[in-house]
Amino acid sequence: MSSRGDRGGRGRGGRGGRGGRGSDRGGRGGFRGSDRGGRGGFRGNDRGGRGGRGGRGGRGGRGGRGGRGGFSGGAQVIKPEYNFQADYESKVSDENSLELIKKLPPLVSEKGALDIELRKAYGSQGTKTNVGTNHVSYSVANLKFWQYHVTFPAEIDAKRKVKNDLLEILLTKAPFSGLKNTISHNGSDALFSTEPIPLDDKTEKKVRFEFSRDEFLGIVPNSILKGGAPRGKPSKDKADAPETAAQAQYVVYCTVEFIHTLDMKELQNYVSLKDSNKIDPSPYIVALNVSLSYQITRAPNAITTGKNRFFFVEHPEKCQSFQKGLFIASGYFASILPTFNNVLVSIRPVAGAFIKSHNPDGTAMNVAQLVADYYGEPLDRLSPDAVLREKSFFKNIRIQRTYLGSKSKPKAIFDISKEFDANNYKFEVDGKVTTVAEYFNARYNIKIKHPELPLVHLGGSNYLPMEACTIVPGQEFTGEVTDVRGVLAFTTHRPHVIAGLTQKEGVEKIVDASHDKRMGKKLIVVPSRVINAPNILYKNRTISYAEKPADGKSEKKKGSWDLTNVEFYRPVKGKIDLLVVCVSPRGRGLRPHEQDAVEDAVNEYVAECGRHGITLVLKTIEEFEFTFPDRCAAEYTQFMKEFKGKIGYVLNIMPHLDKTLYAAVKKTLDVNLGIPNQCTLINKFTKQRFGKFDLQMYALMGMKASIKLGGVNHILDEKSSAVVNQKGLPALILGADVSHPTGPNSADGVSVASVVGSIDEYYNTFPGSIRLQKGREEVIGDMAQMVFERVAAYHRSVSKFPQHVIFYRDGVSYGQFDIILKEEVPQVKEALKQVAKKYNIKNYKPKLTFLVIVKRHSTRFFPLEKNAKDAKGKLVAVQAQDNVMPGSIIDKGVTSVKFYDFYLQSQQALQGTAIPGHYFVLYDEYKFQPDVIQSLTYNLCNLFSRATKSVRVVPPAYYADLLCERGTCYIHGAQPKRGETQLEAATKLYGRGIHPDVQHTMVYI
Q1: Is 625 helix (H, G, I), strand (E, B) or coil?
Q2: What is the SS3 assignment for 112-132?
Q3: Domains of the chain by start residue, with CATH
Q4: Residues near 692 by beta carbon (within 8 Å), at least 6 away in sequence
Q5: CA-to-CA distance for 619 and 954, rounded, in angstroms?
Q6: Which of 15, 299, 818, 904 has the lowest CB atom count within 10 Å?
Q7: What pTM does this model have?
Q8: Dihedral sign from CA coordinates of 592, 595, 599, 604
Q9: What are the tens digits of pLDDT across the range 624-675?
């Protein structure tokens, strides 16, 4: 092991006795100390997790002991146990819409516009079985809504919470009060009533309603009331600012206007394909969802958190404590879903984290008690400075000033004061100076026990002691959930548990809360088909799954295999010089025993890669130390410059998860220097079990290295890939996605769009293009140019141009199909025209098939039997690990009314309930039959290049998602200068994009 004293390194000197252990692959070179900067951390996905799946948690004290959960600064979460048995409808929902679709009149579109594909057939291949769903029927017979639009003044219109509270007051006024049980509102600007509302004014379409001062004071904030108190420095002479003259004259009002009548008979005709009026179903679905949601929220103890999520928390003090200051509760998602000849309600269990509002004895919790719970310390052991360090947790929590009586309205905490406590904040009362503590004792008979705690700032000059503010119940926590293990422990349940919860408890609670007698009580059943898994080829082995009856083991192998004695299909060419970089903060480098562990682990990693066909030659193990996180990018770039052109691959060993360092490393190597690389965590990389390193993890790391270095890991057999490899010319398969900024300033952030594309007949390598665009824009603005780049990359590899293009678009919601078809599909077609023009190709008209995948949906499937008979009458497994079998296709019963869609569950569910992908064929010039496009999509799911499993999302879409995440790394830390937008700052930081030396590889994998 050599030291690097000449570079200002930490020069460990020789360690003796280890130098001769070098590998015959080219020698290790040992550690080389360095004081070069860089740290931060590693976080493969800085877009944030999607959260727990919404399994179902406990109901107060009912949960059983269960398994152990996570622990992260709060209480340990215990996994609840349930013993519900779901009831299913006896009739299978398998109605056929094809004949009615054929009779539909042609769609009337704008000139040159594209029409969305209609269903042309149903799939037929595979073993037929039936599966349960998390849907119940919903009758819309004899149901009609009158819709009204509510308009507020401009200064109020942007405040949804204010509008919601004012709408509640509006419903207490005439003529609404007499129809209160028939009216629902969306919390913003719409009323829906099952009876007409008699608006008296015959001369005006918009009828004005004013709110009294007692009604709106405390709801409309001072920042809106003209001349209201600013949220700035307090006036130190008063605890409660008096009302200004401007506030006293301010009038709050709204106008109500009738829009139209929504007769649900028209919706029933639409789903039955008997719609002669060609309605847009969206307003009807909105009306049903608003009505259902609003009626549920009126139930006692019901909490709604938006997006159709409902929690029924009768005793908050009995709910499980979660991370600091929170409890975790179970609830349900419920939403209307139209399908052919039926209207359904989709119901599934969800979980939510809430601010604690009650003490263990059931009494209301004040802010001081919440502080004690948050820190896990008695108040007399907490210093004011300690409270202030994490005051951001308490901002915007709504509190109630119960000492003011019933007229007091909830207020949000603006801040925790840095300057004032109940002893030092003084003001005059009746000509005498008093403190907050003295004032509350004299005025309200409230003795402040901890006057040293910082005051709660409600804005303006309103400062209150923590002990005088009680927490408003039912506030969902909107910050970062750090106790991921706890969430998984609480929410992860197998399908039979989810089905039982949904049907036995969810349906019952929603029906009871909404008093809705139109909802069915049993879960519907739909037909499913389980198609065969493809054969996967390695250089020296073929992975096959033989269909057979379930035995508890064999069915787990469908879509799951390992790399034991396997060599990648096309190994990396030649020998690759490897540099290992151990990252640490300055002065906190590896200790001698850690160096030993790293050296041994690296040797094992190199050897394991060699067993799969990657010949790595270890040149040296370096230590890189950074000074400060915000300097690590520049320091790491300087550190790595000397290795440019000398090594072929960099393995970065990170100290812990941290997206700042991860972004610095990836920006340096992918963008600035163009060196293939990957990252790992030191605790995982050097971990041993029973004296052995994790060779399986090293093999999976080797899969990443192989792909980045130009190898091909595994491919489909000839039969499985025949549809995309015709006449010796492979199809071009593309994937696209857009990632959006998150957090409080996301509206001003930057979205990252990507397109990836195949380059050969193996479909294992998908290099890609990245573009930055304005935050929250879902449509990909530069789609045409990125597709052009992917076609050019295909041509560089194949030396021909594709005749068939298959496109998988990720990140699309159900309401965005029209805009994708209108704006993105034409861009793809335009790119192909530009290819013909650029390369002077006559009559070049490749056929385009464009699909979207919806990942965030509420549909789940539950197996009803373990085995079923295949086409030959042989009994085979249709269930694996309590879930429906990988390869399950559902295209009836819960699919769209008339469009060309299907659900595919392609993955094994290692835990919990699997979530299927929902695929829509939006545009199809190739005219794929359902069996063909369904099997192709499933086969591709078995080709994810860095895994030995079939994945949930078709790989081109998955890769595009990963590339968007990597693009987010490249612009991490972009700070706009004065007069500069966030997009301009990010574009400047990104520079010219991925380095030319690696831009044709999968740098993001």
Answers
A1: strand
A2: CCCCCCECCCCCCCCEEEEEE
A3: 144-270 (no CATH), 367-471 (2.170.260.10), 536-560+712-990 (3.30.420.10), 571-708 (3.40.50.2300)
A4: none
A5: 38
A6: 818
A7: 0.89
A8: positive
A9: 999 988 899 999 999 999 999 999 999 999 999 999 999 999 999 999 999 9
